[in-house]
Write a sequence for this structure.
C-alpha cells in the first residue's frame, strides 16, 4: 500500500478556454469559441504528455468551463471523479481555496477548471 503522507499532492489550475462574446446570452451560458475548442484539446494533450492524470476535477458550472473540461478530458484520456460546482462560478481566491482545502487528503492530483481573474490570482 502506498504511503500517502510522502506522496506529493498536485493542484492544477485551469482557466476555461476562449469563450464566445456575451452579447444577448447570460454570462454563465456562454459557450467556447472555435479557438477555445482547439485550445482545450491542446491543453489535454499537453497534460497527458506531462503525465498529469487528475483523480478529481473541480469544475465551475458555467457552460464554457464544462465544455473546456470535456475537451481536455477527451484529449487527456482520463476518467476522474468530476464535481461541478456553482460556487466556483463566482468564487474569489478565498472561496476557491476553501473548496480545494475540503478535498480529501487521499486525493493526490486535483484539476480545477475556473474563471479569470480568480485562477490567475490564486
Amino acid at each position: 500500500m502506498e504511503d500517502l503522507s510522502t506522496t506529493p499532492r498536485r493542484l492544477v489550475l485551469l482557466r476555461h478556454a476562449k469563450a464566445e462574446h456575451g452579447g444577448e446570452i447570460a454570462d454563465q451560458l456562454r459557450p467556447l469559441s472555435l479557438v477555445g475548442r482547439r485550445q482545450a484539446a491542446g491543453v489535454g494533450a499537453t497534460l497527458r504528455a506531462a503525465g498529469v492524470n487528475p483523480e478529481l476535477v473541480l469544475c465551475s458550472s458555467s457552460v464554457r468551463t464544462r465544455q473546456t473540461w470535456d475537451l481536455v478530458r477527451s484529449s487527456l484520456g482520463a476518467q476522474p471523479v468530476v464535481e461541478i460546482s456553482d460556487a466556483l462560478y463566482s468564487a474569489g481566491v478565498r472561496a476557491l481555496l476553501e473548496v480545494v482545502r475540503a478535498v480529501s487528503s487521499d486525493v493526490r492530483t486535483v484539476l480545477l477548471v475556473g474563471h479569470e481573474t480568480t485562477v490567475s490570482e490564486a
